[in-house]
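Appendix B. One record, verbatim.
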Amino acid sequence: MMWNLRLVEMVEEECQDDLYIEVREVFYDNLGKPLGHTRATAGGENVEEIRQYLTWALEALDKPILTFGE
């Protein structure tokens, strides 16, 4: 299974007009289709691991925004 960080548009069912975008860890199947996502947290065993994670988060800004359920 593959994953990366992406911007994901979150829309609350009760209030469809409220748009909120989050950096999320997105998981994909073998064909590259998103399977699910979870909240992204910048953490690691050392500073370099955190730096790498934050670099991936910045790279997510250059990719299309995914919509919840996509």
